Amino acid sequence: MQLTGHQIKQVIDFMGGDFETDVTIEHLPERRADSPDGEVVLEAGLYIWCTDYPDEGAVLLQEVDPDTVGDPSDYPAQDQPSGAAA
């Protein structure tokens, strides 16, 4: 399993400073509601929850901090050096 630095920070934040807490991290698939529109009720990804209290809920570990990620148009296009494979 690989975690980004941001995901590690989320794990620490989730634990709330109680490093005696056991947590489970697991990749869960996307789940859809049993409704005509098939609404997504659970996004696929890595989730963390307290091992002893799984019914208390889980948190999706985001790969990056969405508050710090800019729109791709914010970044200038990079020219490929000649001879570089695209």
Helix content: 10-25%
Major β-sheet profile: 3 strands, antiparallel
**How many β strands by DSSP?**
5
Summed over residues and divided by their number, the pLDDT gives a mean of: 82
Strand arrangement in the largest pleated sheet: 1-4-5
Determine the N-to-C terminus distance: 28 Å
- Report the β-strand fraction as a percent range: 15-25%
Helix and strand content put the structural class at alpha+beta
Number of helices: 1
Based on CA inertia axes, which overall geometry fits? flat
Low-confidence stretches: none
Round the Cα radius of gyration to an integer and report it.
18 Å
Order of H and E elements: HEEEEE
Description:
With 86 residues, the chain is of the alpha+beta class. It contains one helix and five strands, in the order H-E-E-E-E-E. Strands 1-4-5 form a three-stranded antiparallel beta sheet, covered by helices on one side. A two-stranded antiparallel sheet has the order 2-3. The longest helix has 11 residues, at 5-15. The two termini are 28 Å apart. The mean pLDDT is 82.
Topology (elements, then pairings):
Elements: H1 5-15, E1 23-28, E2 31-32, E3 40-42, E4 45-50, E5 59-60
Antiparallel strand pairs: 1-4, 2-3, 4-5
Please describe the structure with a list of short key phrases separated by commas or semicolons.
single chain; 86 residues; alpha+beta; three-stranded antiparallel sheet; two-stranded antiparallel sheet; 1 helix
